[in-house]
Automatic annotation (TrEMBL):
It is an enzyme of class 5 (isomerase). Signal peptide: none annotated. Transmembrane segments: none annotated. It comes from Mesorhizobium neociceri. This is dTDP-4-dehydrorhamnose 3,5-epimerase. InterPro entries: RmlC-like, RmlC-like_jellyroll, RmlC_Cupin_sf. One of its GO terms (biological process) is polysaccharide biosynthetic process. One of its GO terms (cellular component) is cytosol. GO terms for molecular function: dTDP-4-dehydrorhamnose 3,5-epimerase activity. Catalyzes the epimerization of the C3' and C5'positions of dTDP-6-deoxy-D-xylo-4-hexulose, forming dTDP-6-deoxy-L-lyxo-4-hexulose. The record marks 147 as: Participates in a stacking interaction with the thymidine ring of dTDP-4-oxo-6-deoxyglucose. It catalyses: dTDP-4-dehydro-6-deoxy-alpha-D-glucose = dTDP-4-dehydro-beta-L-rhamnose.
Length: 169
């Protein structure tokens, strides 16, 4: 047998990923769809999962055409909770919080109905989404604070900005 490097454990015995989140405060809950006689039921968010202690102030859906890129965006006070229910997306995060122990870290996760997960993104973390499948993706966001039409808590950078060490495009 050739010598090499042995793989480390990547899943638990019940096939849940072992994947440390590289950004402080970000939470990921892998979710298992439940087979029913008519299809599948997938829970998206439950208070007792204790992913965060924030309320749900608004739920909205975002569609992304194949290959679409949202660009980088962050919030000063809003917590995002992202869930992809149709298609597949790659969510990329950059920790822009100077006081964070993971300041400057970049992290990615691919999610969709075949591997559902909810990703909790605290304020101050830049995030961008790329639709990576051949179909239109549908992304749900269960924010803790509803969108303020008169003073949006939304800060933007282009997908290829030099301020983040990862290009979304």
């Amino acid at each position: 047998m050739a010598t090499g490097t042995a793989d480390g454990q990547v899943v638990t015995p019940d096939w849940m990923p072992i994947e440390p989140v590289a950004i402080d405060g970000v939470r990921v809950k892998e979710i298992r769809p439940v087979a029913t006689s008519t299809g599948y039921l997938t829970e998206i968010f439950r208070e007792e999962w204790e992913l965060d202690a924030e309320p749900v102030g608004q739920v909205f859906q975002r569609t992304l055409y194949p290959g679409a890129v949202t660009g980088w965006h962050a919030h000063a006070v809003t917590t995002d909770r992202l869930f992809c229910c149709v298609g597949s997306v790659r969510i990329s995060l950059f920790d822009g919080r100077k006081a964070s122990p993971t300041f400057g870290a970049v992290w990615h996760k691919i999610i969709g109905p075949l591997r559902p997960a909810v990703i909790i993104i605290p304020p101050g973390i830049w995030h961008g989404v790329v639709s990576i499948g051949p179909e239109t993706a549908v992304l749900l966001n269960l924010v803790d604070k509803a969108y303020a039409y008169d003073q949006p808590d939304h800060w933007r950078l282009p997908p290829d900005t030099d301020h983040i060490p990862y290009k979304l495009v």
